[in-house]
Amino acid sequence: MSAEGHEIHGHDEHGHHDEHHHHKDTFITKYIFSIDHKMIAKQYLITGILMGVLGVGMSLLFRMQIAWPEESFGIFKVLLGDKFAPNGVMRNDIYLALVTIHGTIMVFFVLTAGLSGTFSNLLIPLQIGARDMASGFMNMISYWLFFLSTIVMVMSLFVEAGPASAGWTIYPPLSALPQAIPGSGAGMTLWLVSMAIFIASSLMGSLNYVVTVINLRTKGMSMTRLPLTVWAFFITAVIGIISFPVLFSAALLLIFDRSFGTSFFLSDIFIAGEVLHYQGGSPVLFEHLFWFLGHPEVYIVLLPALGITSEIIATNSRKPIFGYRAMIASILAIAFLSTIVWGHHMFISGMNPFLGSVFTFTTLLIAIPSAVKAFNYITTLWRGNLQLNPAMLFSIGLVSTFITGGLTGIILGDSTLDINVHDTYFVVAHFHLVMGISALYGFFAGVYHWFPKMFGRMMNKNLGYIHFWVTAVCAYGVFFPMHFIGMAGLPRRYYTNTAFPLFDDLSDVNVLITMFAIIGAAFQLIFLWNFFSSIFKGPRAPQNPWRSNTLEWTAPVEHIHGNWPGAIPEVYRWPYDYSKPGHDEDFVPQNVPMKPGEEQLHH
């Protein structure tokens, strides 16, 4: 880095900055204990992808069990062993454990850490014009705590009695009494330890993102010139700081109940005729604490995906994003409302009906900013000069699943309607579309769009098209029919429905869903191949492959610690000057000064 680079780098994160550049980075300081935000982003990305493979693999196992109950499968015998799948037939307790760990991995390790950790780390410094995160060291610690929590969670799969199996929401008393079910023993303790470490990691990351956005923006980068991606990551981090500590306290109190004889969540309980000594606690208290994180969590997962989509849709429509300020306002409104809707998960917990009506009202309100975002995406696409590359297709797919998944949310947000379908597959269909699939589409869109920035190479476009179309068909093939079996009353989390003759007609639908799931999962192998082979063999990426306006494309393709070799670029305009009259090109990067007489559209 040049000497002038040092003067600019006034806020030295590391005092040894000078010597740091004279000796060569070793393998360990470059790839393992790195404090460079770009490398940490890759660590999050690859860890998230590997956990995703594990989470999806589990869902295939329990989908096979639902479609063909009591059948013997060789793969069950191989993967689950004789203890959990005697003669290849899955036992009911391991079914619940698979559902539990699948939910935990996908929600926290893939969609929260994999999405936010990757793209917040990669894009915040590059898009605001900063040399790095506010604290590179804290950033490194946050990744390693996340990695440690994934290791502890995977370890819980190998304890003797089996992993946690009280559902990913781990409601007591199942999760609070070690003797309640086989998975309530050591597996449950490891689950709680893993989540406590994960929350510490998440909070360190979030604090870092917030401080970086507030303090390290380059000259001219006002808050109203930030790309919507950075707005989304910034507000996501704020929601995380507000709500994750509540889950931490719930996990801590649950550990006390399990191991130290307290009774925060337990009241008069009998097991096999034996009266336990617990009294005075309330399992519903745990539900309140859990969902106070659990609902904002949906937006911690969704907002980064929506931010990524805003950037990609504007870039590939070759026109300014529609309603920039309305988009920011809707992100802020979603952040505020997400903290006062948690009770809609608890309509059947015996809640006072008046309180239920209050939560119904706030839940229906959150549909308004969500609709603003959906309409703004559609208006941006309208009459745009669309470049339908894989990233753009996944972004448009996200708009589709966000709308279809959101519409059923209106039904579930209404207490009178929710009570009828609450514990059925209707809920599974709703939240997988709106949170699972939408967030995964955002994740894929971001990977296809910023892969050249991360690895300096291009991914194969044709494989990307195959990946998108098969995934899109299979995602709807899996979750669309679930609405109907849910309306027909099929309960969720049952490992077989053969005991209920009234559900016999629905077994064919479950087979269809499982077939779609297997095909969809198989085609993710195309993405994995495309991703890992392109890192080494993909064609070299040009400086600005998508002709985009944001600052990250002004940094050199070859990564350097500090992002820009000389001065940091200054910012003169907002990030969405596409197809602007009076310019030769159809895009004007943010660091291009204004011409005389040129006015800013969004003011």
Automatic annotation (TrEMBL):
Instruction: Give the membrane topology, semicolon-separated if more than one.
Output: Multi-pass membrane protein
SUPFAM superfamilies for the chain: Cytochrome c oxidase subunit I-like
Q: List the Gene Ontology MF annotations in alphabetical order.
A: cytochrome-c oxidase activity; heme binding
**Gene Ontology terms: biological process:** aerobic respiration; electron transport coupled proton transport; respiratory electron transport chain
Gene3D superfamilies, per this entry?
A: Cytochrome c oxidase-like, subunit I domain
Keywords per UniProt: Electron transport, Heme, Iron, Membrane, Metal-binding, Respiratory chain, Transmembrane, Transmembrane helix, Transport
Q: Which InterPro entries match?
A: Cyt_c_oxase-like_su1_dom, Cyt_c_oxase-like_su1_sf, Cyt_C_Oxase_1, Cyt_c_Oxase_su1_BS
Indicate the principal place this protein occupies in or around the cell. membrane
Annotated membrane-spanning segments are 44-62, 94-124, 145-171, 191-216, 228-256, 298-314, 326-348, 354-379, 391-413, 425-451, 463-489, 509-532
| Ranges for domain Cytochrome oxidase subunit I profile | 27-554
Q: Where is the composition biased (Basic and acidic residues)?
A: 1-18
Q: Give the range the annotation lists for the signal sequence.
A: none
GO cellular component terms, A-Z: membrane
Q: Where in the cell is it found?
A: Membrane
List the residue ranges of the region (Disordered): 1-22
Q: To which protein family does this belong?
A: Belongs to the heme-copper respiratory oxidase family.
Name of the molecule in the record: Cytochrome c oxidase subunit I
